[in-house]
Amino acid sequence: MADQAVSAPVTPGRFGAGGPNAVTGWRFDFGAADAAADQLLLTSQSLLEAASVIELDVPVVTEDWSGRFREVFDVETLRQDVSLRLLAEGLFVLATLVRAKAIEAAASWSP
Amino acid sequence: MTSGESSCRPARLERFHATVGALSDGLGVRAGLLDDALVAYRSSCDPGHRAPTEDSDEMVRAVAAALRDLGQWTGAVGGAFRRAGQAAGLPGWFGFDGEMTLADARIEDALGGWSDPYRGVAQGAASQLAGDLGVDYDPDGPPAWVELLGDGATVTDVLGPLLEGAAMGSADLPPGVTVTLRAESGVVAVLADGAVVTRLSQAELSARLMLPTATAPRLATAATWVGRAGAALAFLAGAGEQWYADAGLPPRQRVARAVTRGGTVSIASVGAGWVGVQLGAACGPAAPVCSTVFGVAGAVAGGMAGDAVVTAFPFMRPPPPGEHDLDAITGAIAADEVEVNARVAAQADLQASDLAVLATADDPLLSDRVMSILPDDDVLERIVGYDDTSAPPWVSTGTTTTSTTAPPGPAPAAVSAGRPPPPDPWAGSGQAEP
User: Fold this and answer.
1) Minimal CA–CA distance to B18: which of B95, B87, B85?
2) Helix locations, A1-67, DSSP H
3) DSSP symbol at A21
4) A111 to chain B: which residues are within 8 Å by CB?
5) End-to-end distance of chain B based on CA atoms, in angstroms?
6) Which helix (H) or strand (E) holds A19?
7) Which residues have a Cβ under 8 Å from the Cβ of B156 and sit 6 or more positions away?
8) ipTM of this complex
9) Cβ neighbours around B417 below 10 Å, total
10) Pairing with A53, which of A59, B113, B262, B404 sits 20 to 30 Å away (CA)?
11) B227 interaction partners in chain A (CB closer than 8 Å)
12) Which of B20, B351, B429 is opposite residue A96, by nearest beta carbon?
């Protein structure tokens, strides 16, 4: 059962529940921050998976494909691949930012 | 083939359309889930203490839309080939997997609904791109970039030459340049230090991306958090490939393999179900019930038998090249019931720790507090380094004493089913309570 327990969503968060801070006046929901970071990471992974499927399919599609339309396909798939991977990396970075800001918030929770 | 002619296997282009459509559907679901989480994050966390996540889900939707558009165009070209082939007396029935060669003019005529059948891509553009990337373009082989990425290149390796190749007067492009992707009425402009150098696709990325050669002074000019994100990105340039390597899986094949296998089983299942229904039809007055029972049983048997069944019945041959289980693709990409891979989470935690330390370095008191709540680097490193093929490094192998007590607080997601979960790198962290 311990294995199942760790599968539960990370709530209320690594640093507790958070909420309104009576002293500083600002609020922070650590569970929401963890969930946001997790969704960013999952989306990043999905984008890379999508790129991987396309990359694996392209040689099949382009077999015996030649001519003007094929050239367009090559250029466009490169653009798509770059877009998918760029966004994947960007979202990974955003996830690290979300987590870093949560650490900072937890550290400054008590003035 | 002569000049002004094109060749292809039309069915493969049409199947690519279906595959990309399934990918786009999955990304659409994923964008919705991301949006929900980010809305909750922004509404419950003070702006001064949260990361800029606005429009992230829209970026995903924009990429999905651009992907779908490419798939539709590819499928339309395949359909145009097929129809033009039929008109020319070639075997062009739907699903025909053979190769056909036709005049471009015929295909253009059959490609109705596309104002520009060549999508604005100039003749010779592929060779130019390949040249920019330092690879040879062979129009008879897979696109040059497939080989490039297969050799371990990352998106950053590709982006730099692309930017330089696309920029007018690329000699003026400094070696370390802040690159920003920004949506402009559905088209994405890539800006290098404020100047538009190219338009990639209908995607956008608000985070700043640094080329690998980014220099310290330029980092210093970036906003504190975003700039450090850029630095992290340069470090993480190979993260995509690394994730697969960390997972002990062949790069670029995880989902594709799964969905291809799923496709085979799915076809077997449907085929065997059809056999069951036909058998049930022989049951006389009870045929409807009988057919259902035989049909379900047949489907189950088909699903279980898999390859054995498809080899037994000629009409249940393995799927043709490029055909996948579309539902499996959509589900895998949507990832609506999936946890974050523990190694990916650990990588993010390591980076987040570094960012938090950097961002608070000028405040000794806050820095001390940050240091006191950081996760255990050693544990994170072990999780990242675990290749999923050997005994997990957190499992004791020299003693029979094994703790079954769950660590306090939330633990990271299990690395794989059937394995003990890794220790919680955050177990020693402080807890912030209001």
Assistant:
1) B95
2) 2-5, 30-62
3) -
4) none
5) 74
6) strand A18-20
7) A89, B209, B211, B212, B233, B234, B237
8) 0.87
9) 6
10) B113
11) none
12) B351
Q: Which amino acid is at B382?
A: R
Distance, in Å, from the CA atom of A107 to the CA atom of A110, rounded to the nearest integer, reads 7
Residue-averaged pLDDT of chain B? 65
Pairwise CA distance, residues B274 & B301, whole Å: 12
Q: Cβ distance B407 to B386 under 8 Å?
A: no
> Mutation test of the interface with chain B: which of A1, A23, A38, A46, choosing the one with the most B Cβ atoms within 10 A?
A46
Measure the CA–CA gap between B115 and B340, rounded to whole angstroms: 43
Q: Give pLDDT tens digits for A52-100.
A: 889 888 999 999 999 999 999 998 888 788 778 777 877 887 888 889 8
Smallest Cβ–Cβ distance between B356 and the set A16, A19, A100 belongs to A100
Helices H, strands E: what count in chain A? 3, 2
Contact B11, B96 (CB under 8 A): yes
Which residue in B140, B255, B335 is closest to A53 by CB distance? B255
Distance of residue B284 Cα from the nearest chain A Cα, in angstroms? 47
C-alpha closest to that of B230 among B358, B62, B366, B360 = B358
The per-residue pLDDT for range B217-243, each reduced to its tens digit, is 222 222 222 223 333 333 333 333 333
Q: Quick check: A39 and B33 CB within 8 A?
A: yes
Q: Which residues contact B416 (CB under 8 A, 6 or more apart)?
A: B388
User: How wide is the angle at C-alpha A36 spanned by C-alphas A32 and A41, nearest 5°?
Assistant: 150
